[in-house]
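Entry:
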Amino acid sequence: VALARRARQAAPARPGAGAPAAYAPVTRGPLVRTVRVGGVVAAVHFAGVAAPSLRGPGGGSQLSVVYVAPAGSRVKPGDLLAEFERQAQRNTFEERQAEFISLTDQIVKRTAELDIEREQRQTEILKARTDVEGARLENKRNEVISRIDAEKNQQALAEAEASLKMLEQTQQLRLAAVAAELKVLEIRRDRERLQMENARMNFERLVIRAPIAGMVVLMAIWKGNQMGTVQVGDMVRPGVAFLQVIDSSAM
């Protein structure tokens, strides 16, 4: 109708006509609408990847990149995405493992030596108890022997009892010292085991594999004084997200 009205107004009047007339074709068809939108195109499903945080001393140090998957490459779950320098963690693991094995052997050896020492002291205590019992039996004869012999028996009994008491007290002190000595070795061993386990976990964390299938997208991060994507040889701080794996089938 609007087109017909504009055409009627623009058409020149024909000679002999009382009013100007104009004609325009009208057809049926789809109504086309154009909408302009602004925003960012992103994947519905994606997995972010950040530089790993390490356990133990030096866990906040920057990590050196030795491999990163090319941007736009397709990966499957388990494929290698990135790898950071791991030699330091390998060395730490081997050093801590050697120290852990050494301390374990020391504990086993020292425990065996202390067991032998404990048996020897127990034998001495048993002998001292036997001497006390023998001295007591001798003292039962004091009424039928001379006064001098009776005094000797009493003195022998006192010495046997004092010796037994000293051996028993020494045994208790020695057992406490042995327990403390073994405890120190066990604490050192457990500390080495913890550091060894930390190094093993750090060694594994420095290799990042794809959690889902999709396309690799490198994210821009601060590199010195400018933004850029991660490349081999770059240093990355732990916790910085530098890569995404996106499922491009749904955007």
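The radius of gyration is 46 Å.
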